[in-house]
Amino acid sequence: MLSDNDRVKVLSEALPYIQSFAGKTIVVKYGGAAMKDESLKAGVIRDIVFMASVGLKIVVVHGGGPEINHWLNRLGIETQFKNGLRVTDAATMDVVEMVLVGRVNKELVSLINQAGGAAVGICGKDGNLVTARPQGEAEIGFVGEVNAVNADVISTLLDGGYIPIVSSVADDEEGQPYNINADTAAGEIAASLDAEKLILLTDTAGILRDAKDSSTLIPQLSIGEARSLIEQQIVAGGMIPKVLCCVRSLAQGVNAAHIIDGQVPHALLLEIFTDAGVGSMLTA
Ligand SMILES: Nc1ncnc2c1ncn2[C@@H]1O[C@H](COP(=O)(O)OP(=O)(O)O)[C@@H](O)[C@H]1O
Ligand SMILES: CC(=O)N[C@@H](CCC(=O)OP(=O)(O)O)C(=O)O
């Protein structure tokens, strides 16, 4: 539930935003910590259905790293990360695909449908949405980069009134499946759709001047400022690929990219429909 203060803020500020974003495409990357808690998940789902019901074209690209960890652990398969990416051998790839495409994707579809939306779950393979290529380093295995996006399949679903839910698993040209980081997939999909916004839900308030202090949130920044924060090592660790993914999508025509805390109740509505927002907004 929104607090009384937030409810008044959203209601009084939302209408012009709703009018200006109606018919525009918003790509939401949902994953990681923001997915762990069932009641938070229900809140995110309700916000997604609300945004779709007021005429925004919502595309959800999801991760599910913690769920993959859980199943690898149950199957006794060790997992390790290199520069934030999961080292993916053939056995790990099978589990990644089963968990993301089979489990996380269908759970999100089902939750959205129960909340009154009409979701269709797909992965990079469906309609050749994403073609993958190897990330490069041999030791990292079947970790992929996005080689090409054929966004027709998403546009067709959006035009039919559906909410596409996309898993970041895709084949290369020979049919070999690859594990693509969900932030990366979301950024490239947003760019190919010429999206109004890319929104990354994570577990920190946004881009912080001091990563340990959420009161140092930077609410708005340009591509240049974002690059300089990386150079100064103010943006570090897992935040680097997120910021770079935002920068790449902005450079390819996305109007604004947002990094927000998916654990804040109704973070999506507050970020999109209020003047102050709750996280960091990057623009070209
Ligand atoms: N300047 C910064 N602002 C915010 N977070 C930062 C910053 N620099 C480093 N980080 C770290 O980046 C993390 C977010 O990346 P990550 O854990 O990979 O997110 P997710 O699991 O949602 O994909 C934060 O939890 C924080 O520890
Ligand atoms: C290559 C790589 O690391 N892929 C990720 C894909 C899922 C993901 O990105 O999930 P989150 O958004 O929840 O972290 C993985 O295997 O965990």
From TrEMBL:
Alphabetically, the GO molecular function entries are: acetylglutamate kinase activity; ATP binding
Marked site positions, Transition state stabilizer? K29, K242
Q: Give UniProt keywords alphabetically.
A: Amino-acid biosynthesis, Arginine biosynthesis, ATP-binding, Cytoplasm, Kinase, Nucleotide-binding, Transferase
Which Gene Ontology cellular component terms are annotated?
cytoplasm
Q: Which residues bind substrate?
A: G64, G65, R86, N179
| EC number, UniProt record | 2.7.2.8
The record's principal subcellular location, in a coarse class, is cytoplasm
Q: Which reaction does it catalyse?
A: N-acetyl-L-glutamate + ATP = N-acetyl-L-glutamyl 5-phosphate + ADP
Q: Which pathway does the UniProt entry assign to this protein?
A: Amino-acid biosynthesis; L-arginine biosynthesis; N(2)-acetyl-L-ornithine from L-glutamate: step 2/4
Q: Where is the protein situated, by its record's location annotation?
A: Cytoplasm
Q: Name one GO biological process term.
A: L-arginine biosynthetic process via ornithine
Broadest EC class assigned to this enzyme: transferase
- Domain Aspartate/glutamate/uridylate kinase residues, every copy: 24-261
Q: What does this protein do?
A: Catalyzes the ATP-dependent phosphorylation of N-acetyl-L-glutamate.
What family does the Swiss-Prot or TrEMBL record give for this protein? Belongs to the acetylglutamate kinase family. ArgB subfamily.
What is the protein name for this chain?
Answer: Acetylglutamate kinase
Lineage, uppermost ranks:
Bacteria, Bacillati, Cyanobacteriota, Cyanophyceae, Acaryochloridales
> What gene makes this protein?
argB_2
